[in-house]
Design brief:
Strand content: 15-25%
Low-confidence stretches: none
Radius of gyration: 14 Å
Largest sheet: 4 strands, antiparallel
Shape: globular
Number of strands: 4
Distance between the termini: 41 Å
Structural class: alpha+beta
Order of helices and strands: EEEHHEHHHH
Length: 148
């Protein structure tokens, strides 16, 4: 399996676990009200065995995964920028005071685009979060981009 973190690839830090080249770079911890990502020292390739460990919940409820940015194939991409990263920076508070030790930062679209501001908010992002705040739902809603 190709290790996308060794290649010069722009990574989406909010990719679905079923993405072709996805890797796990964090595990959800914290509480239901205040979930936080525990970042892995090295990304792990997604395997059937790893996905099975998520049962009975979805893998995206407990793993943060990254994959090659889909760019124009993504509802959040406007042709130049990731609007999800912009929404997260504009609508969510920072939840850490120092940059998290993130193994994908070098290639992360959010870091490349929004710099430190995205990283300070990233630990609160859970891909499948069924109790997310109104702020998070607004930040992730691609229809808000049409209202600007």
């Amino acid at each position: 399996m190709k290790d996308i973190t060794d290649a010069q690839t722009t990574l989406c830090p909010s990719a679905r676990p079923e993405s072709v080249d996805a890797v796990v770079f964090g595990v959800v911890g914290g509480t239901v009200a205040a979930p936080r990502i525990a970042y892995l020292k090295q990304p792990l390739p997604i395997t059937d065995e790893l996905l099975a460990k998520a049962s009975p919940v979805t893998p995206a409820e407990i793993f943060r995964t990254a994959a090659s940015c889909a760019e124009s194939g993504c509802q959040h991409f406007d042709g130049k920028d990731c609007r999800l990263a912009i929404g997260i920076v504009e609508k969510l508070p920072a939840v850490v005071e120092q940059l998290p030790a993130c193994s994908i930062r070098r290639d992360c679209r959010w870091w490349q685009q929004e710099d430190k501001a995205a990283c300070m908010r990233c630990p609160q992002i859970i891909t499948d979060n069924y109790s997310s705040s109104e702020q998070l739902r607004q930040a992730a809603d691609p229809s808000i981009y049409l209202q600007t």
